[in-house]
Specification:
Blueprint: H1 2-10, E1 30-31, H2 34-40, E2 59-60, E3 66-67, H3 71-79, E4 87-89, E5 94-97, E6 100-103, H4 108-113, H5 119-134, H6 153-159, H7 164-174, H8 188-204, E7 209-212, H9 218-224
Antiparallel strand pairs: 1-2, 3-7, 4-7, 5-6
Helix pairs in contact: 1-9
Length: 225
C-alpha cells in the first residue's frame, strides 16, 4: 500500500494515507526499542542489560535483504524515496557446508582463493558465469544451444560439467532457491536469478545485498513520507 501511494503521488495524484498502528510498516515493521518488542510479544520482564541500550536495536518482523540491482531499488530511485533512507552494504555472505562456514566469494581473487571448489572446477564455473552474464533471453545467439523455455537447469549444469558441490552452491547461495525443485524446471528463471545476483554484486563489490540502516520498517516509512 505504501509503495502504491508513493507511486501515485509521484504521478501527481493526491493521496490520503491512514495507518492503524502508531508505527509504520504493518506486518513488516521493524520494532524499536527492544522494550517495545518485549511488549509486543508479551515477554516477561525487561531486556537483559547485556543487550545494551534498547534504542540500539531494530528487530524486523519479516527479515529480508534487498538485491542491489533488483526491482525494489529501481522503484526507490524512480519515486526518489532514496532521499529518506540510508543504506548499508552487507559485509559478506556465508554458506554452511559439511560442518564448516565458507565465505561466498565476491571477487575473482576471492573465488580463486576459496576452498569451496577445486581449481578445475573454478575454471568451469567461471565459464558458466561468463555464459550467464552474456545470456540475453531476446537474443538467441547467446543461448549456445540452450532453449531457455525447455532446457532444464540440470542440463545446463551438465553442459558446463559442474559437480554437485558447485550445483548446491549456485542454486542456493546465488539463485537463492530453498529447494532443489528448480533443477528440473526450464532454466530461464534460474539464469535470470544468477544474473541478478552477479549484477547486484557488481554494484558495490562486497555483497549483492543492501539493507536499510534502521531496519526494513524504513521502507514503508519512506514511501509514506
Amino acid at each position: 500500500e505504501c509503495i502504491l501511494s508513493g507511486i501515485m503521488s509521484v504521478n501527481g495524484k493526491k493521496v490520503l494515507h491512514m495507518d492503524r498502528n502508531s508505527y509504520y510498516g504493518g506486518e513488516s515493521a521493524s520494532i524499536t526499542p527492544l522494550e517495545d518488542l518485549y511488549k509486543r510479544f508479551n515477554l516477561p520482564g525487561a531486556p537483559p542489560e547485556s543487550m545494551g541500550r534498547g534504542r540500539d536495536w531494530n528487530v524486523d518482523l519479516i527479515p529480508k535483504f534487498l538485491m542491489a540491482n533488483g526491482q525494489l531499488v529501481k522503484m526507490l530511485l524512480y519515486t526518489e524515496v532514496t532521499r529518506y533512507l540510508d543504506f548499508k552494504v552487507i559485509e559478506g555472505s556465508f554458506v554452511y557446508k559439511g560442518g564448516k562456514i565458507y565465505k561466498v566469494p565476491s571477487t575473482e581473487a576471492e573465488a580463486l582463493a576459496s576452498s569451496l571448489m577445486g581449481l578445475f572446477e573454478k575454471r568451469r564455473f567461471r565459464k558458466f558465469l561468463v555464459y550467464v552474464a552474456n545470456f540475453d533471453e531476446n537474443d538467441p545467439r547467446t543461448f549456445e544451444g540452450v532453449d531457455p523455455k525447455k532446457t532444464t537447469m540440470r542440463d545446463v549444469y551438465k553442459k558446463f560439467d559442474l559437480g554437485q558441490d558447485v550445483i548446491d552452491f549456485t542454486g542456493h547461495a546465488l539463485a537463492l532457491y530453498r529447494t532443489d525443485d528448480y533443477l528440473d524446471q526450464p532454466c530461464q528463471e534460474t539464469i535470470n536469478r544468477i544474473k541478478l545476483y552477479s549484477e547486484s554484486l557488481a554494484r558495490y563489490g562486497k555483497s549483492p545485498y543492501l539493507y536499510p540502516l534502521y531496519g526494513l520498517g524504513e521502507l514503508p516509512q519512506g514511501f509514506a513520507r
